[in-house]
């Protein structure tokens, strides 16, 4: 899959644009993405200063050398390696002739000579090699700015300060870029624009700051229309796209995310993580962000994470021997497993981190410890392909379990099904990753499509009934019934009926979201 080009643009300088780009680049690389930074702020280059500790040899070439490469008919790799998955194309070399070379470039003439087609070749090469290409654009309205805001990007990040010149200028530049893009012979969708309020200080003048929040939202609110989930108010989304002012990080060129590796909510890297995750999610799943920011970020941060154990088995004290037998059997099957130690607060605090999956061995009912452990795990792993498995002793009744556990698929212990058999079931589900519906349509994908659909109002009641039945069938572990209901819902959501069509009603949306969360917890989606 081709990577994305994301331009960071500001109408004025001094807003923290390069700071945001460089820190977000480091986060994306840390999370396992291949990232290329391109310093296209040719008149005031400086992106390389943020990476000074990573640059082994002073750069000898950069963006300005693309002009010579074009005229020579060459495609030259101008990137320098910063880290295993992070590269940089600086504005140019460190030589004294840089500014002289930059000032004589006639971009309009270059485009007349075919530089646009050459730049498309460069772009194709970059997006083939990298997951994200982050372009640091020049400020103002310029020819260079048009290359960065209209020609190159898939996404445009507007970095603004709390003043009208910065905000309105950036919004006008985005509108101009959109118009220019439409006139270009490019096969790219409409430009998605993400407004970021940067260096925003709320510490002393809170009331004044809130007025500026409102002003910024008023000026930029229309930019959310073509990418924000309809369920998420623009005001909520805008609140997550704010980089606070911290005087320490306003001095010099430093990477905050390398100092604040596990930031708290009051640190600048917390905000940078959020914005980086928005880009990494490809502007999708914003409803999850609105509901649970930490889970939204963790879903990206943990995508390639290695855990201490594959499964942690939690049991009450009276079933500890049985839990130990399950752990031994899982280990013999090649899985890394551990038994949770009830009463160890440190273990509970890191419940969502120590093991990839959680297995609850329930005898009669969950202990308070198990309930807290499960709730914490489920809350911290929303949106991730990590599961909770429920193992019930013979005397445990599903109907007596709390709702969030009763809806989970369970494995039953019995006279002919002991620890070894349970371990085999767990092993098969984890290693073979059984999809819910084999090679048929995936219920989670169908539910998501239903949430985006429009249809005649009378059909939505049928959809809601099907979704509620699907949730019940999933809770009962009735795979055949789940298949049947998924197939029915699939047909219905592909309905092409004529007449007045309306989006999903609120009550049906709630049922869809709840059932989706249940299925995400219990199964690995095939989508």
Summarize the biggest pleated sheet: 8 strands, mixed
> Tell me, what's the shape?
elongated
| Gyration radius over CA | 27 Å
**End-to-end distance, in Å?**
15 Å
The helix count comes to 24
Beta-strand segment tally: 15
CATH class of the largest domain: Alpha Beta
CATH architecture of the largest domain: 3-Layer(aba) Sandwich
Q: Number of domains in the coordinates?
A: 3
Summarize model confidence as the mean pLDDT.
Answer: 87
CATH superfamily of the largest domain: P-loop containing nucleotide triphosphate hydrolases
Q: Which class of secondary structure composition applies to the elements?
A: alpha/beta
What CATH calls the topology of the largest domain is Rossmann fold
Low-confidence stretches: 433-440
Strand content: 5-15%
Major sheet strand order: 3-4-2-5-1-6-7-8
GO molecular function, one term: ATP binding
Pfam families: CbiA
GO cellular component, one term: cytoplasmic side of plasma membrane
InterPro entries: CobQ/CobB/MinD/ParA_Nub-bd_dom (IPR002586), P-loop_NTPase (IPR027417), ParA/MinD_ATPase (IPR050625)
